[in-house]
Specification:
mainly alpha; 3-stranded antiparallel β-sheet; two-stranded antiparallel ribbon; 5 strands; binds fe (ii) ion
Length: 474
């Protein structure tokens, strides 16, 4: 169905046909805008930004580009096209018709899952709200704002589901989504990673590479859901999400490239010399990577999870790309997971497949993360350096699951607790590292110019030249 942009709330869900729902959402809209003005990108309300806006839900040619002030962005409700006679693809309900309404017995579970997903979207906008002041270029500033408006739209996507399918409870939850705030002492966001401050652009690139990628895998799991409106919503969100990960992937690659240039100019890889030249040394990048990767791993939940088993059995949440698996029931069989026994050993435990769903998804995520790391390492190797960026073991610095709080080094080895205590700070960005990175964050807003710590991208946005004025500041 085509997107109706004549409506106050652009949509392809026939909103005009459901007056009650339309009124409820029109009531929420000004609250969202208040939230955007108060908690969105600080001080850029009047800037003209070259942004893309969804115009259809086709994978090809789905967006148009134009200059818009962010508060005027046309946030809307877009679902992927319905699959006729769609069936549930996994679990005990396998082969039964997908649900067009919420089954009563799954109501509270689905609501909680939608709220948790929805909560991350505005949270990330809040985390990133001050970054515009220290952008390394107008190109990057525009990308930040593109991500921000789309996370705002993802909030709309979840709020639509809450309003349309969960009655009064859903409307209350939609209000709460605007009243929790990232890092707030009294009303924080639901998930820990989304309360971590993102106060520099290296962190932003790590966040969009690692944490948005967690989002990708959550959305892929929900795109399999037996609750059809959720599946269709998430499917379209994935189209937008790809750009966020692109920003992280290419952002980190550009930082690496710039660092390699400096190393070449200086004739060596001494981190102190790299820093003196105003670039980011590779060991510091590794520490930021350790921080954001390990933090993002926790978002998949515990290795052994009865909740995950229930979601799968009930047809609520599947595995990413469920169609690629041969067995959609997973009622038999087990996954061998090594677990710490508290005595320094890691005996394998046979975990029933359904209870190991989080681990299956986390494993797919780690594989996806490795692709970019390999690409960055190729740049380093080509420049003739032996250094390699590496993903730490998924056991490292975990806060959730069997490995939570375990004294594990980045290679995944259990080490004596005292040694771990002593070494952990060295594996993560120190106060000094953060202060150094912060010192580099000087804003560059001359079209086409880049900050000294990052190389230019390969190309501009939507075939425009790199020195296009992607953000016009007044
Ligand atoms: Fe999102
Ligand atoms: Fe995202």
């Amino acid at each position: 169905m085509a997107i109706d942009y004549q409506e106050r709330i652009p949509n392809n869900v026939d909103l005009a046909e459901n007056r009650t729902l339309q009124r409820a959402l029109e009531h929420w809209q000004p609250r969202f805008l208040d939230w955007w003005r108060g908690m969105g990108p600080s001080d850029f309300l009047a800037a003209d930004v070259y942004l893309r806006t969804a115009t259809s839900v086709d994978a090809k040619g789905w967006a148009s580009y134009g200059t818009v002030k962010m508060p005027d962005y046309r946030w809307g409700i877009f679902l992927a096209d319905a699959v006729p006679d769609r069936r549930i693809g996994f679990g005990d309900e396998h082969g039964k018709p997908a649900w067009q309404l919420v089954p009563g017995e799954h109501r509270s579970t689905l609501r909680r899952l939608i709220v948790t997903q929805g909560d991350t979207e505005p949270a990330s906008v809040e985390q990133q709200r001050l970054l515009g002041h220290s952008c390394p270029s107008l190109y990057d500033l525009r990308n930040l704002f593109q991500i921000n408006v789309e996370e705002g739209r993802h909030l709309w996507a979840m709020v639509y589901l809450l309003h349309a399918y969960f009655g009064r409870d859903g409307r209350e939850e939609a209000e709460e989504l605007l009243s929790r705030h990232s890092g707030d002492a009294d009303k924080p966001r639901i998930l820990a990673t989304f309360n971590e401050p993102i106060s520099d652009w290296l962190s932003l690139f790590m966040f969009t590479y690692f944490t948005d990628r967690d989002g990708k895998f959550q959305l892929k799991s929900f795109a399999e859901s037996g609750f059809d409106p959720l599946a269709r919503t998430c499917q379209f969100m994935l189209t937008e999400e790809a750009h966020h990960m692109f920003v992280g992937d290419t952002g980190i690659a550009r930082v690496v490239r710039r660092t390699l240039e400096v190393m070449k100019e200086r004739g060596g890889d001494d981190p102190a010399a790299v820093r003196r030249a105003g670039a980011i040394d590779l060991p510091t990048m590794q520490k930021y990577l350790n921080f954001w990767f390990s933090s993002s791993l926790d978002l998949f939940g515990a290795e052994i999870s009865s909740n995950a088993a229930t979601y799968f059995a009930a047809g609520i949440k599947g595995r990413p790309d469920e169609a690629n698996f041969a067995d959609h029931l997973c009622s038999e069989g087990a996954m061998a997971l090594e677990m710490p026994d508290g005595k320094g050993g890691t005996p394998p435990e046979q975990v029933p497949l359904r209870n190991a769903m989080n681990e299956a998804t986390r494993t797919a995520y780690v594989r996806d993360c490795e692709i970019g790391v390999k690409r960055w390492n190729r740049l380093i190797a080509k420049a003739g350096h032996a250094f390699e960026l590496t993903l730490p073991s998924p056991r490292f610095r975990r806060g959730i699951g069997a490995w939570a709080g375990q004294p594990v080094d980045p290679a995944g080895t259990l080490i004596p607790a005292a040694e771990w205590q002593a070494k952990l700070p060295g594996w993560l960005p120190s106060e000094g590292d953060r202060a150094f990175i912060k010192s580099l964050m000087q804003r560059v807003i001359e079209p086409g110019k880049m900050a000294a710590w990052i190389a230019p991208p390969d190309r501009g946005i939507n075939n425009l030249p790199l020195d296009y004025e992607y953000v016009h500041l007044h």
